[in-house]
Amino acid sequence: MATQPSPAHVVVIGGGPGGYVAAIRAAQLGLSTVCVEMDRTLGGTCVNVGCIPSKALLDSSHHYEFAAHSAKAHGIGIGSLSIDVATMLKRKDDVVGQNTKGLEFLFKKNKITWARGRGRLRAGNIVEVEGSGDESAAAYQAKHVIIATGSVPVELPFLRFDEERILSNVGALTIPRVPRHLIVIGGGIIGLELGSVWRRLGAKVTVIELLPTILPGMDEDLVKEATRLLAKQGLELRTGTKVTAGRREGDRVLIDVAKDGATETLEGDYVLVAVGRKPSLNGIDAAALGLGVGRRGEILVDDRMRTNVENVFAIGDCVPGPMLAHKAEEEGVVAAEVIAGHAARMHYRSIPGIVYTWPEIAAVGLTEREVRESGREYRVGRFPFTANGRARTAGEGAGFVKFVADAQTDELLGCHMIGPSVSELVAEVVLAFEYGASSEDIGITIHAHPTLSEAVKEAALGALGRSIHI
Ligand SMILES: Cc1cc2nc3c(=O)[nH]c(=O)nc-3n(C[C@H](O)[C@H](O)[C@H](O)COP(=O)(O)OP(=O)(O)OC[C@H]3O[C@@H](n4cnc5c(N)ncnc54)[C@H](O)[C@@H]3O)c2cc1C
To answer: What are 374-399's pLDDT values in tens digits?
Structure first.
């Protein structure tokens, strides 16, 4: 350990989307910045074992499914179809590599020091870096610290991850062959996305969800449509079902489930446990530092990302709010700007949530139920993709766009979409939310024809009873 810690204006602990973005923004603002990351690569969960690799596999398996089931309708004949899982996984790893290398380039460009090792925060804003192998960089005296240590998957006590047969997201991204039967515990975003990958490639996939529906918390119309479409594709969705025990026996996994008093043992060759994630406070002794933490162990912060300890900030999955990369990134920007003396604040109203199944699902704002329960009078506009010309050209008529708007003021309150490429379509709506737009604002805006985005315009007009094409 160095006797004299090196001074730094900002030390960020964690190099995921929260931490690396905070570091880049701090450096842009002229602050000397160190980012401590203990993984071999930058990018955190998102880039290494989350958003990016899962989408790479979703894209590959989507192409496979198109070739298997939809190409024929376009007059495209494909002889015998096969999937080389090793190549698909290598491609995924290459995509991850492009992203992690890109981050190293950005760190160099912005003159950010990457302190490789595990950061440990001591009182007085001293950050020790264990395992850096570089004595001179083993400790930093930071003016400001940003904690961005992320989250880890929740384990079931009777099903400890071995990442061979009992998988978290990490193991589910490296299954070496198409499973015969993949059992997914948890019908949330991660379970449905990774379950879809292997189902498209031919695996039998059973999703077990304790709650009465998949995608708990999303708009009920979306959930209904998603349930219908995913079940039609072949995902076996067992909702209201409790996993009571589970074990691995050689290459098999045995999962005991119970529903309405009846019990059953499911046998699969892999089980993915996707029952949620919890904040990680690796290297952060909250009690010793006097940091305020919530019920789930998350670090409590204000809307400027300040903790209750002076000059200590926290962002991303280790603080309250949805565990999403874009939320972590924005919090990183706010923390860096507040440190630099700007009047930045985090706004949580317009954070989109997306499920990258096919069709995709995207939402921003309040669900219809939330609006109804608030007692506010509202109107709903809804437009199906079957009535959208571009969706028809693509053979992608499933799904709809739905708006919930205030009945008096027409203010947009919520938008819920299921359909082709809605992960991209939602951006327009998020912008509209940020500008406090009404449904009429979107409805009277010219949208290019023929595009999927016309469904957004039409649904917005629908809230006023003025849709043209339905
Ligand atoms: C399968 C999957 C798919 C996902 N898909 C999406 C998606 O499509 N869109 C989306 O928005 N979100 C997605 N997420 C969620 C997203 O990955 C997280 O919300 C995001 O990564 C959180 O960023 P973060 O910076 O807070 O934490 P993390 O990304 O978890 O990064 C924390 C980093 O801190 C490092 N670290 C922790 N403690 C220390 C320490 N003491 N010293 C040094 N380093 C430390 C860790 O090694 C890690 O690199 C997905 C997650 C999973 C698991």
So the answer is: 999 999 999 999 999 999 999 999 99
Instruction: Tell me the best of 13, 24, 41, 51 to mutate to test the pocket of ligand 1, counting ligand atoms within 8 Å of each CB and taking the most.
Output: 51
Ligand 1 centroid to Cα of residue 141, in Å, is 25
Instruction: Indicate the pTM of the whole model.
Output: 0.97
Q: Model confidence over 272-321: pLDDT tens digits?
A: 999 999 999 999 999 999 999 999 999 999 999 999 999 999 999 999 99
Ligand 1 centroid–CA 194 distance in Å is 17
- Per-residue 3-state assignment (H helix, E strand, C coil) for the chain: CCCCCEEEEEEEECCCHHHHHHHHHHHHCCCCEEEEECCCCCCHHHHHHCHHHHHHHHHHHHHHHHHHHHHHHHCCCCCCCCCCHHHHHHHHHHHHHHHHHHHHHHHHHCCCEEEECEEEEECCCEEEEECCCCHHHCEEEEEEEEECCCEEECCECCECCCCCCEECHHHHCCCCCCCCEEEEECCCHHHHHHHHHHHHCCCEEEEECCCCCCCCCCCHHHHHHHHHHHHHHCCEEECCCEEEEEEEECCEEEEEEEECCEEEEEEECEEEECCCEEECCCCCCHHHHCCCECCCCCECCCCCCECCCCCEEECHHHCCCCCCHHHHHHHHHHHHHHHCCCCCCCCCCCCCEEECCCCEEEEEECCHHHHHHHCCCEEEEEEEHHHCHHHHHHCCCCCEEEEEEECCCCEEEEEEEEECCHHHHHHHHHHHHHCCCEHHHHHCCCCCCCCCCHHHHHHHHHCCCCCCCC
The number of the ligand 1 atom at minimal distance from the alpha carbon of 44 is: 49
Instruction: Select from 12, 35, 46 the residue to mutate for testing ligand 1; criterion: most ligand atoms less than 8 Å from CB.
Output: 46
